[in-house]
Amino acid sequence: MSSHVYLLFSLAFYAVGALHVLLQALTRRQLLTSWTVTATLIGFALHTASLAQRWTEAGHFPAVGLHDVSSFLAWALVLVFLMTYTRTRVEALGLVVYPVAFALVLVANMTPAAESDDPILQSYFLPIHATLAFLGYAALFVAFAMGLLYLVQERELKSRSPRRLYYILPSLERCDTIGGRSVEVGFAFLTLAIVTGMLWSYRARGVYWTGDAKEWTALIAWVLYVVLVLARHRTGWGGRRAALLGIAGFAAVVLTFVWVTAAGVASAAR
Amino acid sequence: MIVLVGLSHRTSPLPVRESLAFAKERLVEALQRMRQEAGVSEAMILSTCNRVELYGRSDESEGGGSRLEEFLCAFHGRPRPEIAPYLYRLSGSDAVRHAFRVAASLESMVIGEPQILGQVKEAYQTAEQAGTLGSALNALRNRSLAAAKRARTETGIGQNAVSVSYVAVELARKIFGELRDKNVLLVGAGKMSELAARHLVRSGARAMVLGGRTFEKAEELAAALGGRAAPFESLRSELAAADIVISGTGAPGIVIHREDVEHARAARGGRYQRPLFLIDIAVPRDIDPAARKISGIFLYDLDDLRSVAEANLRERQKEAAAAESLVDREVREFLEWQKSLDVVPILIELRRRADEIRRIEVERARRRLGPLTPEQEAALDAATSAIVNKLLHPPTILIKEMARNGYGAEQVALLRKLLGL
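YS: structure for the whole thing
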């Protein structure tokens, strides 16, 4: 089977997971059942097969172009989610992760795979660098999601008349702790990704910095997260402010990425 | 057959229930009289503040319930026409279903409340002591209590606090997650704050009691909670160290002002933005309501706790649907099991088979004997019938006795095997 077929199947399994988690949220207290987890695991296995297949088909590590990026990002996100879930059993995270993973795989399914025979893509730096970067962004996304859950739960508690979400979301402290851990992990991966990226760039082109979209995104995100990680560690900052910064940090990552990509496309067009 | 007569908060006002309630001391007597006077071979009485129910086992197929009703009125000396409109009378599978639902607290005023299970257990125990519990009610007891426990653990009907002090603990869990090593500050040593604090301390929180005019009371409460006591003047510094504050003084005005809360927040907030959970259970209120505008401060007064309790109750009612279907399944299983135990069909089948064999053999004999006189024919019939009846007499008596006294599934199986059915 081709990578596209695998990807289509994994999309179907993620759809089952996403629908199920949303339905459960409306009706029952338990969000993730063994059905959801099984569907996710099967979807993830097919997704992995799809990426492996794509690697052979493309002749380079599948991290080039929108198709590869969204597919790989979704894969990293599901992986990080599954790891977070096994460690903490925080089910409400699925409410944010499933729809996003589904959307990313959908985008990947709808966009054609980019073909490129640039020799730079043959470097063994690509798999290392890309994997580190994607896992880092996925962990930062989890921090973003936990920040959202924190704010929603805080609003529920402040309202003094709880609704459905109050019952299914974790406690403030748990949101804070898991969010904090995710920022640390994500930040560590991001740092390593930047370092390997620079080394790769130096090897291939003789410069550490070329100034393209990905580099600016990573740098700006890195600076933001330095502030957040330091604030948490040095001043014991937590709670609402940390949640807000976690959200703002990730939003900045997305915005920079979109903006720099658009600018890059514009300059290329000229 | 199980018969049931009763009244509950749904069918009757409190004064009527009160007049028909059974005092604990008279329960054994009532159970024994019920068995003698109401024509039931087994008896159980469930008498709580929300319901009075008489369960019996009647061997009559009809009218067992009406004698229970008579007994209930006679025992309390109330005229029957006055009481009758408040009563429900159920028998057979309806009575079984009702017993299951009561034990699972699906019939309770507050769905999912935990007390009823204990009350039902106790009612059966009392009946056991009184010697009025037999196989039928015992089976009902085992199955309905097991179903109630399943409903409680497998659905959410028992979840989410509906009492004010438990609501406070649950909210604390929603804010802090783990309550271990959290500091609880009690302002004022009232009964209700003690109750809430006890739950928190049991979950691992540390208690601190601030005393007012009577410092000994604060010290006493602190000792009971395994914490420390301090004079009221240290409010601000204690507030800064606290995670959860329960305020329940009898003071006529505000005791903890917005400035106190802001001060506490500044004292802790510079370093660590831990949330602060303030519970004001005093009437009139102790804590300035304006404090709830401060970020990171969660202030709940008595009305807020009640509104959370109501929301929890609504959640429970949603879960009740799941519990209903679980109990329904259990009832169906129980009824099927009951039916499989029924020995009356064995009796009928045995008779039918024996008679069939007799008729075939008589027919065969007649063919061999040639034409018979009417007298001879009558004699042949009488002799064979007598043989069948005499042979079947002991098993018939035994089966009837079993039907009265109860038996197990293995006994029924053995019986069927023995009789070749």
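YS: worth flagging: The longest strand of chain B covers residues 2-8.
IM: good catch. Also Residues 240 and 265 of chain B are 7 Å apart (CA to CA).
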